[in-house]
Write a structure and sequence with these properties.
- The mean pLDDT is about 95.
- This protein is an alpha+beta fold.
- β8 (about 120-130) and β9 (about 135-150) form a beta hairpin.
- The chain has 2 domains: about 10-85, OB fold (Dihydrolipoamide Acetyltransferase, E2P), CATH 2.40.50; about 90-240, 3-Layer(aba) Sandwich (Trna Endonuclease, Chain: A, domain 1), CATH 3.40.1350.
- The protein is about 15% helix and about 40% strand.
């Protein structure tokens, strides 16, 4: 996923009210001057542990949309050793792009891809399927996608960064799909380069960790892919090992 326009450099002051970040511009931009304080929208609903701190450098995008109250969006932060993708609204797009360009090898060989597929009272992030001559869907594979931005130990990425009842619900749904005889995958997309392995954050959400292990035992596939992250582009790059 390439950024449409060149990102803008800022220095983080603080995050507050969950979706707001105040930052200092490190360059002139439109009517704003260098060193002006601006308010930025962040789509990340998690705690943002280990991926956002006061004083860190960050990169933001500008959106000249009259419907938006805030014109700036937080895209990348920099902890000094790695850029970190913190815009969770792009995670599904990253996954779809990687499936379509063949990068996620475990999810190849399907005729069609449908995002946000409704199943029961929920929506699955991605449905992969073949289409028969009578338009019937066959060989379905249901894929739930999660963004990973938290780092624990020196090279360990972990999820979630806060208790996630929604994430627990998704794992239960994937298990029901497998019990019904169809294929289901839990896909983790890691938007940082300073990690090389993954495991669930049991100390933060033990129930999620328990359900993920149960899901694996039942037959839900677990896929973990790390992105390469640059100021111009974020893209899914490398499969990495996980432990439960």
């Amino acid at each position: 996923m390439k950024f449409e326009n060149e990102l803008i450099k800022v220095k983080v002051i603080k995050r507050y009210k969950r979706f707001l970040v105040d930052a200092i511009l490190e360059q002139d931009h439109l009517e704003h001057k260098k060193d002006d304080v601006i308010t930025i929208h962040t789509a990340n609903t998690g705690s943002m542990k280990t991926c956002l701190e006061p004083g860190w450098n960050a990169l933001i995008s500008f959106h000249d949309n009259p419907k938006r109250k805030l014109k700036y969006s937080l895209e990348l932060t920099n902890n000094g050793s790695s850029l970190i993708g913190v815009n969770t609204s792009v995670t599904n797009s990253l996954a779809i792009e990687a499936i379509e360009n063949g990068k996620i090898k475990e999810l190849q060989g399907f005729d069609k891809l449908k995002p946000e597929y409704k199943i029961g009272k929920s929506r699955i992030d991605i449905l992969l399927y073949d289409q028969a001559d009578n338009e019937e869907m066959t060989n379905r594979c249901f894929v739930e996608v999660k963004n990973v931005s938290m780092k624990s130990e020196s090279d360990l990425a972990t999820f979630p960064d806060a208790v996630t009842e929604r994430g627990q619900k998704h794992l239960n749904e994937l298990m029901e799909i497998v019990k019904g005889g169809e294929r289901a995958c839990m896909l983790y997309i890691i938007q940082r380069e300073d990690v090389s392995r993954f495991k669930p954050a049991k100390e933060i959400d033990p129930e999620y960790a328990r359900l993920l292990k149960e899901a694996k035992e039942i037959g839900v596939e677990i896929l973990v892919y790390r992105c390469s992250v640059t100021p111009k582009e974020v893209k899914v790059d490398t499969a990495i090992p996980y432990e439960l």
